[in-house]
């Protein structure tokens, strides 16, 4: 009997797994340069004459977005073959947690590289957790930010159809625990209630896959905050944002049992795994989320930036370099360039990527630490962003260091500079004050491991760390970012603010 499960669409792509990391990376780079050698950028830097990684590094400069912006602007004007051979399929807008938007181009070949890595990960999940026996929830944000186009009609923000392609999108739609049409709902309250209704009805849910853990935490809190509306929908049915909802008394009874016990296993008895960010600034938020799921496996998401996929979880739930999706270089702490085969365990690196979507030797701004190897493939843990620095009096606190300082805490925690008092304020969630009762002492002690911070404190250039407990700080931050046009599911809550606008974000009146 033939099994026609939609999960079968996701297959492992054993393209060069019998080769070494060095051979796989060299092969990928050679194919990329050969394919794009007739682009304007390829002709300028002599792609056709590059015979080795050393040639590549000598002929092409390391670049950032400002260096490539003139080229990307031409791509947005539909000037063909600027950065790569082929059409610009779409752009995605990015800018991290604090900055304005940057347009990142996608080619068909670049998207194929992403889809191969995605398919490998999902196929591995099926093997590891047998999730093909049920459904999955993929983070679907409300359509508060509508897709736009460039002047020449190229899509900006293509959504699931862009990343998945027609073949995978069809499979996702069949597997999804909620209709993919929820991503078209423009009202956040309607979107949340619809999502809760469909999730509550799925006893066969096997996987939660979201980006930020706070995204799922907010949904779970909605089960409590919106229990009257949700109970009425389950008991009587109704219509919301064009979705006809049938009454489901059996689920209404189960939901009531959940409300009385708080045990998520009552709603989702077959749930096996939760996939979300769990590194760097997401560490404490992931721990908070898993308090709802004490018996479920947490699989930390790999490092997947708008620009490229860098790592994906392996069978041991460790972030493994996606060797066959891009070419990678790494800047070590001495400023030297390393390749994937020369990384050292417990050393930190800045990531440089080369992609089939026109980013060559592109400094992506992410920091990683090598935590080991799977065979000869590096395992890389995301530690934070470069360039996110708070510097009131010369202390130069980086995001990765602040992530370390806040890692013992539970729930929401954010360090904010206060230029008025010349010091730092630790924002915490009021609900976890008992768990974090020694937070100021713990964090101040770790901050003093930074010599410049300790020196400034000794000279009273910086006042002692203060603490401000807040009501629902996650919700405030998410609402502020949504008001700036960010998609709810894409928002990552930072551990460090680098300016004074946190009072506005959290509506703090003094």
Brief sketch in words of this structure:
This protein is an alpha+beta fold and 510 residues long. It contains 17 helices and 22 strands. Strand 13 and strand 14 (337-339) form a beta hairpin.
Task: Write a structural description.
- The protein is of the alpha+beta class and 510 residues long.
- The chain folds into three domains: 17-109 and 302-385, Rossmann fold (3-Layer(aba) Sandwich); 131-271, no CATH class; 389-505, GMP Synthetase, Chain A, domain 3, CATH 3.30.300.
- 35% of the residues lie in helices and 20% in strands.
- It has 17 helices and 22 strands.
- It has helices at 21-35, 40-44, 53-59, 65-76, 108-129, 159-175, 188-200, 213-225, 227-236, 249-261, 264-267, 283-290, 399-406, 439-447, 451-458, 473-483, 502-505, and strands spanning 90-94, 102-106, 135-138, 148-149, 155-156, 205-209, 238-240, 243-245, 273-276, 297-300, 311-313, 319-321, 327-331, 337-339, 348-354, 362-374, 377-385, 389-390, 397-398, 413-418, 423-429, 466-470.
- It has a five-stranded antiparallel β-sheet with strand order 14-13-15-16-17. A four-stranded parallel β-sheet has the order 3-6-9-10, with no helix packed on it.
- Helix 7 packs across helix 8 (213-225) and helix 8 runs parallel beside helix 12.
- The longest helix is centred in the N-terminal third of the chain and has 22 residues, at 108-129.
């Amino acid at each position: 009997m033939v099994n026609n499960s939609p999960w079968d669409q996701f297959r492992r792509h054993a393209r060069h797994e019998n080769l070494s990391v060095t051979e796989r990376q060299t092969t990928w780079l050679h194919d990329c340069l050969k394919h794009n050698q007739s682009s304007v950028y390829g002709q300028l830097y002599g792609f056709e004459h590059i015979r080795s990684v050393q040639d590549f590094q000598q002929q092409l400069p390391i670049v950032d977005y400002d260096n490539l912006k003139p080229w990307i602007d031409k791509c947005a004007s539909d000037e063909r073959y600027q950065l790569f051979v082929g059409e610009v399929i779409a752009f995605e807008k990015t800018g991290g947690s604090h900055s304005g938007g940057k347009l990142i181009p996608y080619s068909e070949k670049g998207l194929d590289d992403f889809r191969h890595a995605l398919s490998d990960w999902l196929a591995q999940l099926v093997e590891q957790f047998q999730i093909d026996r049920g459904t999955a929830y993929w983070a679907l944000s409300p359509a508060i930010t509508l897709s736009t186009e460039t002047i020449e009609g190229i899509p900006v923000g293509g959504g699931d159809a862009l990343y998945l392609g027609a073949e995978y999108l069809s499979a996702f739609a069949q597997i999804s625990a909620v209709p993919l049409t929820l991503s078209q709902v423009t009202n956040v309250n309607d979107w949340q209630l619809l999502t809760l209704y469909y999730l509550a009805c799925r006893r066969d849910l096997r996987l939660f896959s979201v980006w930020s853990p706070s995204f799922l935490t907010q949904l779970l809190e909605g089960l409590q905050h919106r229990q009257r509306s949700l109970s009425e929908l389950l008991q009587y049915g109704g219509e919301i944002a064009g979705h006809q909802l049938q009454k489901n008394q059996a689920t209404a009874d189960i939901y009531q049992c959940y409300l009385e016990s708080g045990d998520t296993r009552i709603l989702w008895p077959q749930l096996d795994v939760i996939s979300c960010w769990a590194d760097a600034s997401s560490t404490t938020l992931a721990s908070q989320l898993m308090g709802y799921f004490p018996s479920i496996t947490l699989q930390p998401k790999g490092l997947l930036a708008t620009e490229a996929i860098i790592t994906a979880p392996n069978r041991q739930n460790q972030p493994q370099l996606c060797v066959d999706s891009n070419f990678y270089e790494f800047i070590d702490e001495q400023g030297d360039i390393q390749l994937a085969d020369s990384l050292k365990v417990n050393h930190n690196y800045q990531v440089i990527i080369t992609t089939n979507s026109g980013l060559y030797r592109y400094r992506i701004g992410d920091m990683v630490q090598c935590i080991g190897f799977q065979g000869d493939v590096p395992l890389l843990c995301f530690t934070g962003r470069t360039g996110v620095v708070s510097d009131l009096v010369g202390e130069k606190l980086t995001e990765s260091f602040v992530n370390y300082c806040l890692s013992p805490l539970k729930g929401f925690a954010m360090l904010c500079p206060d230029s008025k008092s010349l010091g730092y304020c630790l924002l915490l969630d009021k609900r976890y004050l008992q768990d974090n009762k020694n937070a100021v002492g713990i964090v101040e002690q770790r901050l003093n491991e930074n010599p410049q911070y300790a020196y400034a404190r000794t000279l009273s250039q910086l006042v002692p760390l203060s603490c401000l407990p807040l009501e629902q700080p996650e919700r405030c931050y998410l609402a502020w970012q949504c008001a700036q046009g960010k998609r709810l599911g894409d928002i990552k809550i930072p551990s460090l603010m680098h300016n004074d606008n946190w009072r506005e974000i959290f509506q703090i009146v003094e």
